[in-house]
């Protein structure tokens, strides 16, 4: 892909979307830490200095991508919850159904979990105040949407829905780091299976974390 210099705001947006799409494709092949501006610029067909005209740093690209992927995930999650949670069930049963749906859905978005895992320690560094401001506004908007979906199917959690959603995304990011062991660790597990007793399955671990949190938030009978 080769671009001429963007001269209109519409052309600039086309470039930005192309950079985000290319970064997204890279993350399907490699971990967040392996994404570099040099490789990104090569794949998108722009000089590194040109990429920096649209995004001030590698971290700025990844923050925008995380916000975009979160919005996409929540759009998918809404009908999944509508289909998987039955309003006639008890609060505890609905909490279990919410856990089933969200854990299955979020675990399928492994790249999104990886981005959340890198957010606090990596992605929110090496970016300007304005980039962080834009990211936090997008994050809060997505968090409000997610909390609204949870309250729709489990109104008993009330005002605790947002803190539940925030904690869930943080937990998803933390768990993702342990669910794709490096080759050396896999070799150890293969040679000594007893050491793999606590090998983490992302969906199962997410489901347990969600149920534990939600049931703890339900009003006492």
Describe the protein in words.
It holds the Pfam family TetR_C_34. Residues 36-55 bind DNA. The protein has 221 residues and is mainly alpha-helical. It folds into two domains: 1-55, Arc Repressor Mutant, subunit A (Orthogonal Bundle); 58-217, Orthogonal Bundle (Tetracycline Repressor, domain 2). The protein is 71% helix and 0% strand. It contains ten helices and no strands. The chain has helices spanning 9-27, 37-44, 48-54, 58-84, 91-107, 110-123, 129-153, 161-176, 183-191, 202-217. Helix 5 packs antiparallel against helix 10 and helix 7 (129-153) packs across helix 8. The mean pLDDT is 92.
Helix amount: over 70%
Q: Any guess at the CATH architecture of the largest domain?
A: Orthogonal Bundle
The number of distinct structural domains comes to 2
**End-to-end Cα distance:** 61 Å
Regions with pLDDT < 50 over 5+ consecutive residues?
none
> Tally the helices: what do you get?
10
Counting helices, strands and paired strands, the structural category is mainly alpha
Could you give a short account of the major beta sheet? Answer: none
Mean pLDDT: 92
At the fourth level of CATH, the homologous superfamily of the largest domain is: Tetracycline Repressor, domain 2
- CATH top level assignment of the largest domain: Mainly Alpha
Task: Work out the radius of gyration.
Answer: 20 Å
Sketch the topology as an H/E string, one letter per element.
HHHHHHHHHH
Named CATH topology of the largest domain: Tetracycline Repressor, domain 2
Q: What is the oligomer described by this structure? A: single chain
Q: What form results from the Cα inertia axes?
A: globular
Strand content: under 5%
How many runs of DSSP E, i.e. beta strands?
Answer: 0
Pfam families: TetR_C_34, TetR_N
Protein name: TetR/AcrR family transcriptional regulator
Domain HTH tetR-type: 13-73
InterPro entries: Homeodomain-like_sf, HTH_TetR, TetR_C_34
């Amino acid at each position: 892909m080769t671009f001429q210099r963007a001269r209109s705001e519409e052309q600039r947006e086309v470039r930005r979307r192309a950079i985000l799409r290319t970064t997204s494709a890279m993350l399907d092949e490699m971990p967040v830490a392996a994404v570099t501006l040099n490789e990104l610029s090569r794949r998108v067909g722009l000089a590194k200095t040109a990429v920096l005209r649209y995004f001030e740093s590698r971290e700025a690209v990844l923050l925008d991508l995380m916000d975009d992927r979160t919005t996409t995930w929540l759009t998918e999650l809404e009908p999944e919850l509508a289909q998987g949670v039955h309003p006639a069930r008890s609060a505890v049963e609905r909490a279990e159904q919410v856990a089933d749906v969200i854990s299955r859905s979020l675990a399928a978005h492994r790249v999104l979990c990886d981005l959340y895992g890198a957010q606090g320690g990596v992605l929110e560094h090496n970016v300007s105040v304005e980039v962080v401001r834009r990211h936090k506004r997008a994050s809060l908007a997505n968090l409000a949407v997610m909390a609204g979906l949870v309250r729709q199917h489990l109104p008993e959690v009330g005002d605790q829905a947002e803190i539940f959603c925030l904690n869930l995304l943080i937990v998803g990011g933390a768990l993702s780091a342990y669910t794709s062991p490096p080759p050396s660790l896999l070799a150890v597990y293969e040679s000594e299976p007893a050491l793999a007793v606590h090998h983490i399955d992302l969906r199962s671990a997410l489901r347990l974390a969600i149920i534990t949190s939600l049931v703890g938030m339900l009003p006492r009978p």
